[in-house]
From TrEMBL:
GO biological process: peptide catabolic process; proteolysis
Co-factor requirement: Zn(2+)
Protein name (Swiss-Prot/TrEMBL): Aminopeptidase
Organism per entry: Pristionchus fissidentatus
Domain Peptidase M1 membrane alanine aminopeptidase stretches: 424-636
Entry keywords, A to Z: Glycoprotein, Hydrolase, Membrane, Metal-binding, Metalloprotease, Protease, Transmembrane, Transmembrane helix, Zinc
């Protein structure tokens, strides 16, 4: 077989300009013709002026008789328009000749007098000024006739001034359901008796109930005759007599003369209004007391129960909280807004045999005299904190403890069967806690830090102050069960949550529209801090591949939202916990760090945390703190931070920098909004606060020489000849893409093919991902993108290879059910096989921490070759399924995490391949193992395998389990991990069946999950279409159900489907032809 050649079939410049001209917008064409017409008029006028000056020059020359008369000549380049087809015009010389008086004759010496030299200097400077003005005007004309042209140093010309700090336009959004500002909380004191079954005898009428007594203290801010609190309690007291208002008299609490007269519950706004029979004056303080009963639900919000299965098959229950974003109101009536901080005190009465946990450390336990077999646990009060950080739990989980160098206990709680899976998490937590204390220069303010592992949890983790809750998949690690990539996720998530103990808990955003401030910084820390703390090498580079890559992908849709999103409805708050907040937020924070420098960034963060400790802050407060850490007048970075950051946080999307070459000595840069599908503007319901114009920090290098960061708004002209190797956004330091002119792309390809190591691995990654994303969006021919990976056979660094695999993976995905899909798969197999043979060793699929990038690429190679139909890979996976799973786990009580010998790195796709090839016997074997399993990570893989079944009836029963009641259905009503169930491992048949299931059952699903918008987003994201008829079904369904518009996930699902079909129409045929041509080339 001939070697695979990834090179193009023709010269790149000819390809772009002759063979496949990109489509030209009629408005752009009309403007271009108008510009050219004006330029011709200007050229004719300039020509006539030159002819007149030439005649004057000749007349002067005839009069000049003295040999001392000199001619001073100044040259300047007349720039051609980017649209001139003749390319670069020759230099034109403008001669400025100055007549001078004859100098006295000196027969002994030939010298100029001082006066003559002075005159010559003056004339020369005047001539230079004239030449500059002419050049400036011509430059202005070639840059589009704009007025604001700024001459920078080093020959740089900027089109458009940098943005200055505009007046503060941050007006707090009017979100429905916001509480009035007439009172503020000081502290809450909650006593809860939890009737958790399975440990002691509990009366049937009290099973899974919680009896609560609340005493809270408030301060009056402004005169008021009412108290408004948040409450979503299922059984809120509605009698005025049940609410008592007290006041302090020395050490005693006595009844206040002002009492509650009426109680009004608004279940829609989730508030309770207590009208008073009198009034409170500003500055007064009062206490409110109420008792109420709550239910333990399984909703995964508020206070709820989670279950786990022991090795001996017993089902155990525990109680845990999830308060963020607005679920503390489901636990107690309170002021459930982030800037209503208060101290929380807690007492928990719970069954013997269980342990109670709270944000604060335990201070003592005692028997409950009135309730046999119950104990009462007291806790230390919390620091002043936001209500969404309230957390407590009751369980019989086993505990393992370690301490930091300062003696802070770090405790982990996990079911006893898995206690040896928690060691890695404990070690990482200690390292990160010590790292952040040093990094932020603020000691961790609590007396302990707890980690609790829960199987039923809607998120990866929750950063509750002092009591962090984790989904079991993201905290447990054991080499027999967990893959190296799972270990990476554990390390990253722990770094994320521990950073929140300062950034988010100690200092909190004022309102939810700035939640990105918390999550973006913590997501930034996932990779940078984890690597800098020495926990795991390679994560810093993976940030650019994974986190920044995800952000670019998600934010390229018109339906994406700004980081800082105005909130109008309460339901919109929970939707902010998406990829935009985490991935884009982290990318913008990383860009900010690159702009100001690591030391200035660190100093700014320290100042911010110290200034706003135990309080609230907005995003501008963070920017001001970083600004103060910079040199005077921001000369260090050359731009103002606030307008720069606002354009990246207050409008959706990101820019692409377009490079054009008007002549042989310069390049001109412009920007535009990068969109995957430019015809989808109608789905942008967020508008654009700044017209989709950004202030872009240009990190660039010319001929491997890094240049100082240069700022761009509307456009920029840089000196660069056509032989230069120009690289913009080197090392992926900025959040934008770059589209070069054809000559620059050719020069880049030439360098990659000649010696790619002259460009850094991160720069090579950026070139690959940008070129394919631009081609995907129709802004660059795919031939150019494919030429960017022509050099790959000589690539040894894993990061650029990962970028290429991901790009090819997207092409295959977007082909969908296209008739030529198999031809695309054939090409992808040919490209990836060369790396597969060089990198993958089936006998060594376990990796150490320092090999995390190697594990990532082995996983991607095997996975993508399997998806593209590689028979060798599929056969190996199937053999592992039969020999290392089914034959090892034959016993009816087998537990897959203990008996499976399939390497954890590839278990999920091995199980899937087994189910695809199997029948009822294999499906039932996977189902049996799923029901027996105790480790959530392994349950997730088994579920992925089940969804790969080709049996329609089995798949329908599987999806029905989302609605099955206890002891019913395929899974016997067992709780399912909705994220795994809906997001991962679906193939074409299961996707089609899911669509049908959702359309038929959407009312039941929304009724069950509407309060948990994380799960609603999973329901929306799982909707897909690969044909026009499937897309029409989705659009028809959404039109018939307008209430779905409240959830952004459905709009994104429609845009994704439309984009994929549009892509197939535009690119599929050409790509197939190009793939065949490249595959067959000798």
């Amino acid at each position: 077989m001939a070697d695979l050649d990834l090179s193009g079939s023709s010269n790149l410049v000819a390809l772009v300009y002759n063979e496949q001209p990109p489509p030209v917008d009629p408005k752009v064409l009309q403007e271009r013709l108008k510009k050219e017409k004006q330029m011709k008029k200007d050229e004719e006028k300039t020509k006539r002026q030159r002819e007149k000056e030439k005649e004057k020059e000749e007349r002067r020359n005839t009069k000049m008789t003295s040999p001392h008369n000199k001619r001073v000549t100044i040259e300047h380049v007349k720039y051609s328009s980017p649209d001139d087809s003749d390319g670069v015009k020759p230099r034109e010389v403008v001669d400025h000749t100055v007549e001078e008086e004859e100098a006295p004759e000196d027969k002994s010496d030939f010298r100029c007098g001082k006066g003559v030299i002075f005159c010559l200097v003056i004339v020369f400077l005047i001539s230079m000024g004239v030449a500059f003005i002419v050049s400036f005007k011509l430059t202005e004309q070639s840059l589009g006739g704009r007025k604001t042209i700024i001459q920078e140093e080093d020959g740089i010309v900027r089109l458009g001034a940098l943005f200055s700090s505009e007046p503060d336009d941050d007006v707090e959004e009017e979100t429905e359901g916001r509480l009035p500002r007439n009172i503020e909380p000081i502290w809450y004191n909650l006593t809860s008796r939890v009737f958790l079954p399975g440990f002691v005898d509990i009366p049937a009428n009290k099973l899974r109930l919680v009896e609560n007594s609340l005493l809270a203290k408030f301060r009056v801010v402004s005169d008021t005759k009412e108290i408004v609190l948040n409450s979503a309690l299922s059984k809120i007291p509605e009698s005025a007599e049940e609410w008592k208002i007290l006041k302090e008299e020395g050490d005693r609490l006595v009844a206040s003369p002002v009492q509650v007269s009426t109680v009004t519950v608004n279940s829609t706004a989730e508030t309770v209004l207590l009208a008073l029979n009198g009034g409170f004056k500003a500055g007064m303080e009062f206490l409110l007391k109420v008792s109420y009963v709550g239910n333990l639900s399984s909703s995964k919000i508020g206070l709820y129960t989670s279950t786990y299965r022991t090795v001996d098959g017993k089902e155990r229950e525990l109680v845990v909280t999830q308060s963020e974003p607005q679920n503390t109101r489901r636990i107690l009536p309170c002021m459930d807004e982030p800037d209503r901080k208060a101290v929380f005190r807690m007492t928990i009465e719970h069954p013997k045999g269980t342990r109670a946990l709270f944000n604060g450390i335990e201070t003592g336990t005692e028997p409950v005299a009135t309730t046999p077999d119950f104990v009462r646990t007291h806790f230390k009060e919390t620091p002043r904190m936001s209500s969404y950080l309230l957390a407590f739990a009751v369980s019989d989980l086993a505990m393992k403890v370690t301490t930091t160098s300062r003696g802070i206990p770090v405790r982990a709680f996990v079911q006893s069967d898995l206690i040896d899976h928690i060691d890695y998490a404990l070690n990482v937590t200690v390292k990160m806690l010590e790292y952040y204390e040093k990094e932020f220069q603020i000691p961790y303010p609590l007396d302990k830090l707890d980690l609790i592992s829960v199987k039923d949890f809607s998120f990866g983790a929750m950063e509750n102050w002092g009591l962090m809750v984790f989904h079991e998949r993201f905290i447990l690690f054991h080499p027999q069960v967990s893959s190296p990539l799972s270990k990476k996720e554990v390390a990253k998530l722990l770094s994320h949550e521990v950073s929140h103990q300062w950034f988010g808990n100690l200092v909190t955003m004022k309102w939810w529209s700035d939640v990105w401030l918390n999550e973006a910084f913590a997501s930034h820390c996932e990779d940078t801090a984890t690597a800098r703390a020495g926990v795991m090498e390679g994560l810093d580079d993976l940030f650019y591949f994974k986190t920044q890559g995800d952000a670019h992908s998600d934010d390229s849709f018109a339906s994406s939202r700004p980081l800082s999103t105005p909130l109008h409805k309460q339901v919109e708050i929970a939707q902010l916990f998406d990829s935009t907040t985490y991935s884009k937020g982290a990318s913008i924070v990383r860009q900010l760090e690159e702009v100001v420098g690591v030391d200035n960034f660190r100093n700014g963060i320290r100042a911010y945390l110290k200034k706003f400790s135990y309080g609230n802050a907005g995003h501008d407060d963070l920017i001001e703190s970083i600004k103060e850490s910079l040199r005077a007048n921001l000369s260090y970075i050359g731009a103002e931070l606030k307008p720069f950051m606002r354009r990246f946080t207050k409008q959706n999307g990101f820019p692409v920098v377009n490079v054009e070459r008007p002549d042989t000595m310069h390049v001109e840069l412009s920007q535009e909004w990068f969109q995957k599908d430019s015809n989808s503007d109608g789905l942008n319901k967020h508008g654009a606060s700044y017209g989709h114009v950004w202030e872009i920090p240009l990190f660039y290098e010319i001929n491997e020489e890094p240049k100082a960061v240069t700022w761009m708004t509307e456009g920029l002209r840089l000196p660069s000849n056509q032989s230069d190797l120009l690289i913009l956004n080197s090392d992926s330091r900025g959040f934008y893409r770059v589209n070069y002119d054809p000559r620059s792309w050719s020069r880049i390809h030439e360098q990659l093919n000649k010696n790619h190591t002259h460009l850094s691995p991160l720069t090579r990654l950026r070139l690959i991902t940008d070129s394919f994303a631009l081609a995907d969006a129709g802004k660059l021919p795919y031939d150019v993108a494919l030429d960017t990976i022509r050099y790959l056979p000589s690539e040894d660094d894993r990061i650029p290879i990962l970028g290429a695999i991901q790009a090819l993976e997207l092409i295959q995905k977007q082909m969908g059910g296209n008739e030529d899909q198999e031809k695309v798969k054939t090409f992808i197999r040919r490209v990836l096989t060369q790396f597969y043979k060089k990198i993958v060793n089936w006998e060594r699929l376990t990796f150490e921490d320092e090999d995390i990038i190697e594990a990532e690429i082995v996983d991607r190679l095997i996975n993508q070759l399997w998806q593209s139909g590689d028979k060798e890979v599929a056969d190996k996976l199937h053999r592992l399924f039969e020999d290392s799973l089914l034959n090892q786990c034959k016993d009816a009580n087998s537990i897959s995490s203990q008996c499976s010998k399939v390497p954890p790195l590839i278990r999920s796709i091995s199980y899937c391949e087994g189910a695809k090839r199997g029948r009822d016997e294999e499906f039932n074997a996977l189902l049996r193992l799923y029901k027996n399993e105790i480790a959530v990570t392994e349950k997730s893989r088994l579920m992925n395998g089940l969804k790969c079944s080709r049996d329609t009836a089995s798949l329908k029963r599987l999806f029905q389990s989302l609605l099955d009641e206890k002891n019913q259905g395929l899974l016997s009503g067992k709780s399912v991990d909705e994220e795994v169930f809906l997001k991962y491992g679906n193939h074409d048949l299961s996707k089609k069946i899911y669509n049908e299931f959702f359309f038929e059952n959407h009312e039941k699903l929304m009724k069950k999950y509407s309060k948990n918008t994380a799960i609603v987003s999973y329901l929306a994201d799982a909707i897909t279409a690969s044909t026009k008829s499937e897309l029409a079904d989705i659009e028809s369904f959404l039109l018939s159900n307008p209430s779905m518009d409240e959830f952004d996930g459905f709009a994104k699902a429609v845009e994704t489907c439309r984009s994929s079909l549009t892509w197939q129409r535009k690119h599929a045929k050409h790509l197939v032809e190009e793939f065949e041509k490249r595959s067959n080339r000798v």
